[in-house]
Amino acid sequence: MADSYDVIVIGAGPAGYVAAIRCAQLGMGVAVIDEYKRKDGEPSLGGTCLNVGCIPSKALLDSSEHYHRVESELAGHGIKVEGASLDVPQMIKRKDKVVSDLTGGIKQLFKANKIEWLQGHGKLMAERQVEFSPHKGKARQLSAEHIILATGSRPIEIGAAPLDGERIVDSAGAQEFQEVPKRLGVIGAGVIGLEMGSVWNRLGAKVVLLEAQDSFLSPVDQQVAREARKLFEKQGLDIKLGCRVTETRKGKTVSVHYEDSDGKQSLQVDKLIVSVGRRPNTDGLASEDADLLTDERGFVHVNDHCETNIPGVYAVGDVVRGPMLAHKGSEEGVMVAERIAGHAGHVNYETIPWVIYTDPEIAWVGHTEAQLKAAGTPYRSGSFGFAATGRARAMDRADGMVKIIAHAETDRILGVHMVGPQVSELIAEATLAMEYEASAEDLARTIHAHPTLSEAVHEAALSVHKRAIHKAN
Questions:
Q1: Could you read off the pLDDT of 384-415 as tens digits, one per residue?
Q2: Which of these is catalytic: 327, 417, 450, 465?
Q3: Catalytic annotation present for 346
Q4: Could you tell me the pTM of the whole model?
Q5: Which of 68, 254, 268, 417 has the fewest CB atoms found within 10 Å of its own CB?
Q6: Is the confidence at residue 374, as pLDDT, over 50?
Q7: Ordered structural domains, the chain, with CATH
């Protein structure tokens, strides 16, 4: 007889482990199957995000920013540091410690919530059965009233630049360099490519990013994207658009061959990061007789509440439609758990914030001007630069801006876009405002502390109606 649970979750990333914890909080018996192993071969909870994605990349971004400030900025504050040196292995060691602490924390949460962690591969079978193949031992059958698929995503590989784990790597490999490459190439100038490129650029590498699209950061409001590109290139990042990589050759260096509007080109680098997006990790997730419906790209088909075509089976996170964001997956996990328990869980896909953790940071929520123009939606916008805020000036972080777009007739906020210091935190105010269907006037009439970075949000809201105080409207 198969081992039975109320809920089986396949995948322990931010979507899966959050779903499991919420199910346990609601009184269900839960098992989580996850096959992830660390580089030392030990199983680890947290999926890509905690182990080789969001968390380690932010740890390295923070470390590299400290080094850059010591090298290039602190003297202007009257702080002189002589003989500063860079210890890359220690930087990587610290990153690993951050990851270990957080993944260990999830293990403790599982224990506290009486969640069973099954280490190995899970496959959905017919009639809500799950085949569990442990890392060691024989496979066995499990069953559950409800099954949640949350196996996440993995980097897309391209034939023109096959990974070797040493000189040509994906984003995970880029977090393991033991020394700073003199010349670093990055295929893809999206979120991950920019973040990884920024880390090694700050540490001294000469970084070139090759982006296939003709526009920079196409999902971002283009006024913000133009400002961001200008600031990145000022830092030394070489961003080339409209580049199609055709071949890589390895000798003493990695020779990257690509084509752009000027024809065939080549680039010599010491290391190459391939960062061209991610694909759902659904290979081998379900047997044929389970009849799980997926599309041609491998995404699991779900409705608005993340229910698949199979009764009692749900899918959340990177394996379903929508942005591949940890917080989006977590909220879907909570929604599914609450709906299983008979509550009215939901996710508002219109108010999911995005962040790029470069310096300056980029953050946005809602619609861009281009999207509103295409939809024929009447709007007005206002913007305000951080250079006019006292706190940003005092911090020596005066680059960037906040832009707010509101409906021309109702004044309801439709989108907020930022590039500048700590906008990963500032975007929460905009997200909350949109969740409550606030107007630009509502934000404009909300008192913001002085001096703070959030005053830029306040002034941008005032600017929508040409009322900004510290700007010539």
A1: 999 999 999 999 999 999 999 999 999 999 99
A2: 450
A3: no
A4: 0.96
A5: 268
A6: yes
A7: 3-155+279-347 (3.50.50.60), 168-276 (3.50.50.60), 353-464 (3.30.390.30)
